[in-house]
Backbone:
């Protein structure tokens, strides 16, 4: 998470530098930018996994063990809810991809045209 | 004052605020299929600035339950695990539909409108169902489940009434006249629900009967 965060900062500042005074970045750099589309998402997930795995076997370190806090919900119920969440997130992810693909396909207006200059 | 009592009062206020406030925007969501395309956009726009804040009362209520009454939190949310999941899935689809239906065109728009309706309905029904399960002390048996379904359906009526009255307040012209008609139906639905639930409650709840 920290590594990706630093890389994201580097890429962002590189982007700011290479686009200074209306300059256009090299194509390979544009590919780097697009490779970072999901970097924030991956970093969030990585950080979350680190937290969840790192705190075991404690729920509250030194106070409450995970095994002491487990509820009496059946495996079938957990399976049903997990399936529901996975399907929901898969559907929402698909919708998200459709939306950003659509928005990317429309393309951005050139900066000059947007400002109303010839 | 007793701390437990104070937290109980706070939790009661949260639940009341949630039912009244999120109730009207869930109700507007359930009324979507009854409106035309243009009206649907007006309806969603009328609740768009508020719905997110309204749902926060639910988070506060559950938060107080966890912080002040952890044992009850474990028992109640453990017993209501699946209806809670159903409610959350409903709220997720509904929340996303708010953002995406505006950008979608053609059948995509139709799909998001439908998901907005379905999510509102699922969340409302699940909340009423949970109340029914709670009143019956989580007893299993056909009669108890039927009672919970009845409470779920009645709560949907209550939210539809709230949603319709919100639209009367916020709209004008043809849509307002429609909303008045919807409110009449909602009132009938609520009256029927209150009557049936009142008749059935002594049969399923020992504490009410005793």
Residues:
């Amino acid at each position: 998470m920290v590594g990706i965060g630093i890389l994201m900062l580097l890429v962002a500042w590189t982007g700011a530098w290479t686009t200074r005074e209306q300059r256009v970045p090299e194509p390979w750099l544009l590919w780097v930018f697009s490779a970072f589309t999901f970097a924030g998402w991956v970093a969030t997930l990585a950080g979350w996994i680190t937290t969840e795995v790192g705190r075991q076997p404690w729920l509250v370190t030194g106070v409450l063990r995970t095994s002491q806090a487990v509820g009496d919900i059946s495996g079938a119920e957990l399976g049903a809810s997990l399936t529901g969440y996975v399907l929901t997130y898969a559907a929402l992810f698909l919708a998200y991809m459709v939306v950003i693909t659509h928005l990317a396909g429309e393309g951005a207006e050139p900066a000059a045209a947007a400002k109303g200059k010839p | 004052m007793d701390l437990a009592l104070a937290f109980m009062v706070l939790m009661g206020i949260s639940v009341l605020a949630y039912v009244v406030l999120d109730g009207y925007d869930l109700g507007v969501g359930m009324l979507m299929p009854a409106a035309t395309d243009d009206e649907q956009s007006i309806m969603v726009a009328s609740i768009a600035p508020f719905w997110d804040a309204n749902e926060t009362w639910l988070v506060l209520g559950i938060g107080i339950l966890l912080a002040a009454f952890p044992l009850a939190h474990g028992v109640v949310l453990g017993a209501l695990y699946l209806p809670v999941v159903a409610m959350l899935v409903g709220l997720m689809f509904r929340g996303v539909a708010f953002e995406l239906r505006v950008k979608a065109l053609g059948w995509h728009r139709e799909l998001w409108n439908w998901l907005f309706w379905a999510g509102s309905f699922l969340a409302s029904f699940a909340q009423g169902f949970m109340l029914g399960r709670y009143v019956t002390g989580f007893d299993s048996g056909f009669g108890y489940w039927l009672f919970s379904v009845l409470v779920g359906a009645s709560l949907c009526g209550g939210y539809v009434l709230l949603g319709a009255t919100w639209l009367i307040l916020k709209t004008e012209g043809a849509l307002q006249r429609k909303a008045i008609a919807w409110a009449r139906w909602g009132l009938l639905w609520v009256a029927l629900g209150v009557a049936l639930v009142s008749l059935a409650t002594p049969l399923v709840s020992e504490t009410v009967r005793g």
Summary: Chain B has nine helices and no strands. Chain B touches chain A through 14 residues (CB under 8 Å). Chain B has a mean pLDDT of 91. Residues 173-204 of chain B form the longest helix (32 residues).
